[in-house]
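We were asked to recover a plausible sequence for a given structure. The inputs and outputs are reproduced exactly as logged, with field labels preserved.

PROBLEM: sequence recovery
POSITIONS: 210
GIVEN STRUCTURE:
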C-alpha cells in the first residue's frame, strides 16, 4: 500500500484514498477466504458421494489452502497495479485544481514577506491599543482626583462665604480688614476652582475621544 500522504484528497473526499483502498483490499481477501471455504465444503460433499474414494478431507483442505495462497499472491500483484492506477488517475486531485472552499486563498494570496508585514502591523496596532487603554485609565484616575479636589475647594468656599455673611449680619466693623482679606482669598479660591473645572472638562473630552 502507498504511504504518501494525500491531505488535499482527504479534505475533498472526507477520507484518505489509501484508507479506501485498504478497506477494498481486506474486503476482497475476506470474500476470497469465504469462497474457498464454500469450495472446500462442496468438494468434501462430492467426495463423500463417490464410493471407494481414497482422498481424505485433510488432503482436500491442504489443496484448497494452497489454492487460496496462490490466489492471494496473484491478487496482491494485481491489486498493487490497480492501486497505483487509482491513486494517480482516479482518487488524486490534480495540482492545478483548487477546491471551492479554498477559492478565497487564490483571490487573497500573500507572499511570505507580505504575511510577515501584516503580522508586524497587527502587533504594532495591538501595542498602540494597549497604550491608549493605559492612557485612558490614567486620565480617568486623574479625573477622579480632580473631582475630589473640587469637592474640597467647594467646601472651603462655602465656609468662607458663611463667615463673610456672619460678619456682615453682626456688623463686626473691627473685622473689616479680616473680611477684606477673606474676600480676596475667597475670590482667589473661586478662580482656582474655575481652573480646576476647566481642566476637568478637558480631561473628560480626551477620555471620550480615546
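RECOVERED SEQUENCE:
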Amino acid at each position: 500500500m502507498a504511504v504518501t500522504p494525500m491531505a488535499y484528497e482527504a479534505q475533498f473526499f472526507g477520507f484518505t484514498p489509501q484508507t479506501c483502498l485498504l478497506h477494498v483490499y481486506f474486503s476482497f481477501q475476506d470474500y476470497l477466504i469465504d469462497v474457498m471455504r464454500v469450495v472446500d465444503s462442496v468438494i468434501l460433499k462430492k467426495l463423500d458421494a463417490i464410493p471407494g474414494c481414497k482422498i481424505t478431507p485433510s488432503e482436500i483442505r491442504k489443496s484448497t489452502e494452497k489454492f487460496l495462497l496462490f490466489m492471494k499472491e496473484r491478487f496482491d500483484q494485481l491489486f498493487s497495479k490497480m492501486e497505483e492506477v487509482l491513486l494517480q488517475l482516479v482518487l488524486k486531485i490534480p495540482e492545478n485544481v483548487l477546491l471551492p472552499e479554498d477559492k478565497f486563498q487564490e483571490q487573497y494570496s500573500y507572499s511570505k514577506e507580505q504575511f510577515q508585514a501584516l503580522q508586524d502591523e497587527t502587533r504594532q496596532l495591538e501595542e498602540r491599543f494597549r497604550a491608549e487603554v493605559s492612557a485612558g485609565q490614567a486620565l480617568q484616575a486623574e479625573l477622579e482626583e480632580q473631582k475630589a479636589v473640587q469637592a474640597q475647594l467647594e467646601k472651603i468656599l462655602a465656609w468662607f462665604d458663611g463667615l463673610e455673611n456672619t460678619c456682615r449680619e453682626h456688623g463686626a466693623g473691627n473685622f473689616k480688614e479680616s473680611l477684606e482679606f477673606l474676600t480676596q482669598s475667597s475670590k482667589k479660591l473661586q478662580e482656582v476652582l474655575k481652573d480646576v473645572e476647566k481642566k476637568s472638562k478637558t480631561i473628560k473630552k480626551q477620555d471620550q475621544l480615546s
